[in-house]
Specification:
mainly beta, Ubiquitin-like (UB roll), four-stranded mixed β-sheet, disordered N terminus
């Protein structure tokens, strides 16, 4: 009994100490009697955790900082799914963790109350953490000062635009730390490798305002020294050094080091790459240590699936990530679907020639079944690509081969030599290749048939594309996309080939229409889509993250395809609207959309469509 009383006394002391150390502002409220009563339920299963009162954050944000585990969502309705256990010590500490989370995020007056509701019959408890957020702490002003004499050139007006802290907005500790890290990064970009930034906050509790001061310690101006690379196995050191974005004795720049890391990762040979300067050794010339970890050289992938536009599909590919050395990448792939079949061998040769240009050679065979034609192609493509500036990619390509086409309407069969030369340029700042949350893409693609190799089908084409994603709140994203395309015949040709024309409709262009069915139609009884020479599509979308990997979206699309310039009317568009759900998986985003047309179509097609697809329109 004495040991049990002593243990209870120690627990009281721990809880009281936590309350006292948290200060008067940390008001996670529960009594010693509550804590003692909660001990009875130790080891009971948790039925559900309720978090009422959340307005400025997400439920997942709070669950992340808690030690008490969230049971599966299904247990709210039926007693199946993952079970978690209740422990009073964890729950009491969680109340302070949630309170400290709010204090870090700029809500000094937030109050947190904890309640435990037992179910004696099932030996379960319902946990309720009631939150009163209170008013946020508003940033009234901020400034930058040097903590030591320095000749660092600080562009405070431009740097301030990239900081997370904003005057007139709530001030969070995470934003202060992010801003300090941003300023330190700016100093490292201009050569101050040992730069560090501290911050101080002066708060006015009566007015709920604060003033922040960032103290800059740039340190000495530095240069890049010798580079040491470790962890190489099959990749030679000369191949790795070819990816360096700097030379010895260049002024120190963290941007160049990060570009080096990205270029090594781009080889896909390494599973991990770190590039770090030696700032611990005194001096202004810093050695650079590159640590690599090579992954598997050979990859085999098999896949299959179904979507509403392509139908059933299966694919297989084999990749050698170091084909005959020098980081060359060889890939063979094959795919089969209801409307297409294809096989391709692709050789990617990075940074050849001049250590600045990537070369890709890709022979392939493919067969397509579209509503207006059947097309079989045997061709080879050569691509020269480069990244002259950060986020800017330029490529020039040529595709040469033989194509056999059957026109569905007339039944005419045509065999011709295919030669297409393409130039493209894009500026891409999106933060993720599969599910971007912010950034933009602006691109232009120009193509011409027969510029190098003679072909009877001469045509030209230009496509202009723009996409933008703007985070409106922590959970809401506004997205927009537009694409304009124009093409026409060249020389003695009178029309453009049906397989090269523009088509709209489907999950990535104008939803609510079947794939490639927003198009001029033929004169046959089926009103077969035949494509057009002018195309315009617009998309606006708002997304809201419901929980974890699940995002809801509402959208409005509009677009049209015109046969030629004589009938082109840029405001004659077919709009559609709808909603969808996006689920992010390890294989990529899976999307389910429902859209309906807002304008009657003249082809008497179905006025709505369900799209189940892999990927997103952005």
């Amino acid at each position: 009994m004495e040991c049990r009383s002593m243990l209870r006394f120690v627990r009281y002391i721990v809880v009281a100490a936590v309350v006292l150390l948290s200060g008067t502002a940390a008001r996670a409220q529960f009594s010693i009697e509550d804590y003692d009563r909660w001990q009875v339920y130790n080891g009971w299963r948790i039925w559900v955790i309720e978090l009422p009162g959340i307005h400025n954050f997400g439920r997942s944000d709070l669950l992340t900082v808690m030690a008490t585990e969230q049971p599966s969502w299904s247990r709210r309705y039926v007693r199946i799914g993952r079970r978690t256990m209740f422990y009073a010590d964890n729950f009491a500490a969680d109340l302070f963790r949630v309170r400290n989370f709010y204090r870090r995020e700029g809500f000094p007056h937030a109050e947190v109350h904890g309640y435990v509701f037992p179910d004696e019959k099932h030996k379960e408890v319902k946990l309720k953490i009631e939150i009163s957020e209170g008013p946020p702490l508003i940033l009234e002003s901020w400034r930058m000062v040097f903590g030591s004499d320095s000749g660092a050139g600080v562009d405070s007006a431009r740097w301030s635009r990239s900081l997370a802290v904003k005057i007139g907005k709530p001030l969070a500790l995470s934003d202060l730390q992010s801003s300090a890290d941003t300023l330190a990064h700016k100093l490292r970009v201009i050569g101050h490798a040992r730069a560090r930034v501290e911050f101080q906050v002066l708060a006015d509790s009566l007015r709920n305002t604060a003033a922040a001061t960032f103290i800059l310690y740039p340190g000495r101006f530095c240069y890049l020294g010798a580079t040491r690379i470790t962890g190489l196995k099959q990749v030679t050191e000369s191949t790795a050094r070819r990816e360096l974005a700097y030379c010895k004795f260049d002024p120190f720049s963290s941007t160049k080091l990060e570009k080096t890391r990205r270029q090594l990762v781009k080889l896909e040979t390494f599973s991990h790459v770190s590039v770090k300067p030696d700032t611990a050794t005194p001096g202004d010339t810093l050695a650079v240590y590159i640590k690599t970890d090579e992954g598997r050289r050979y990859h085999v992938r098999l896949g299959g699936g179904y979507d509403t536009d392509v139908g059933r599909r299966a694919s297989a590919d084999f990749t050698d990530l170091n084909f005959f050395g020098r980081g060359r990448r060889f890939t063979w792939s094959g795919s089969y679907a209801d409307i297409y079949r294809a096989t391709e061998a692709r050789l990617f040769w990075p940074h050849t020639p001049l250590n600045a240009i990537d070369i890709t050679v890709a022979p392939k065979w493919d067969y397509k079944e579209e509503p207006g034609y059947r097309l079989e192609t045997v061709s080879g493509t050569t691509i020269f690509s480069s990244e002259p500036l950060d986020y800017v990619n330029i490529s020039v390509s040529n595709e040469v081969g033989v194509a056999r086409r059957k026109d569905v309407i007339s039944g005419e069969k045509t065999r011709y030599t295919k030669s297409v030369e393409t130039f493209s340029i894009g500026w891409d700042t999106r933060d993720h290749p599969l599910v971007p949350r912010k950034g933009h893409f602006v691109g232009m693609t120009l193509a011409e048939s027969g510029a190098i190799y003679r072909t009877d089908l001469r045509w030209w084409r230009a496509i202009f594309t723009g996409r933008v994603l703007v985070p409106a709140t922590r959970f809401t994203i506004l997205a927009g996309k537009t694409e304009f395309g124009i093409m026409g015949p060249l020389h003695d040709a009178h029309t453009t080939p049906i397989e090269e024309r523009f088509y709209l409709g489907g999950p990535t262009t104008v939803r609510g229409w079947r794939r490639n069915h927003l198009s001029p139609r033929g004169v046959d009884a089926e009103r077969t889509p035949v494509g057009g020479d002018f195309s315009l599509s617009l998309t606006t979308e708002i997304r809201y993250n419901i929980w974890g990997p699940i995002t809801a979206a509402a959208f409005c699309d509009a677009g049209n395809v015109w046969k030629n310039k004589e009938v082109w009317k840029p405001f004659d568009l077919y709009p559609s609207a709808g909603a969808g759900v996006l689920f992010v998986t390890m294989l990529g985003p899976i999307r389910l959309d429902y859209a309906f047309q807002l304008r009657p179509n003249p082809y008497h097609d179905k006025s709505s469509a369900i799209h189940f697809s892999l990927g997103t329109p952005f």
